[in-house]
Amino acid sequence: MKLYYNPVSSYSQKALMALYEKNVTFTPVVVNLMDPAGRAELEKIYPVGKVPVLIEDEGRVVPESSIIIELLDQRFPDTGPRLLPTDPALALETRRWDRFVDCYVNEPMQKVFFDGMRPEDKRDAFGVAQARGLLTKACTALDAHLATRTWLNGEALSLADCGAAPCLSYLRMLQPYDTFKHLTAYAGRLLERPSFVRISKDAEPILKAMQAGR
Fold first, then answer.
1. The pTM is what?
2. How many CB atoms lie within 10 A of CB 142?
3. Which terminal CB of the chain, N or C, has fewer other CB atoms within 10 Å?
4. Are 14 and 6 in contact, with CB atoms under 8 Å apart?
5. CATH code, 2-75
6. Does domain 88-212 have CATH number 1.20.1050.10?
7. What does the alpha-carbon distance between residue 74 and residue 18 come to, in Å, rounded to a whole number?
8. How many of the other CB atoms lie within 10 Å of CB of 120?
9. Which ranges constitute the DSSP H helices of the chain?
10. Does residue 23 carry a pLDDT above 70?
11. 103 half-sphere exposure, CB direction, 13 A CA radius
């Protein structure tokens, strides 16, 4: 299998965390989305031009991080943790929190981050304020949910946690959430996992270069 990804992409990191947690062997292919040639090559594989994209050994193209993780659970059910429960009700709950993190943490977090990289006269102050408000609501909901849980789905790491890790890693730099004690404790557990430590180390030099250019 090949994974086309970018080391600082939160959705790429989500898929990487699942691959590392399940100890699946794959060939990494780094895509520089700022390079027109690199993006053009990616669009030949997936016309939308988004990462991550997994290509199976038989050639099937599997885009989108959540779908990639579900595929990994299907292909490697006995390797590493089960990231999508076999129980239908628990699987639905896992997908619910995965969707919550993607829509209400990842997307507004990216809005804040990328708006900060624009020239001042091109920034969207109203849109950023809306995004920050949504992030506060999301953190409030997550904090309450995590008051009685180790992970988003209870006591077992899941698909939803793979998505939460990169979001919470970036969010602490953009909109600190240390006043939310349950969320902060959860983030500590999550970001200290060896799988995510590995991801962070690989992304660090690229992220520093991006921040220096802001």
1. 0.94
2. 24
3. C
4. no
5. 3.40.30.10
6. yes
7. 13
8. 5
9. 10-21, 36-45, 65-75, 88-101, 107-115, 125-145, 159-174, 181-191, 194-212
10. yes
11. 6
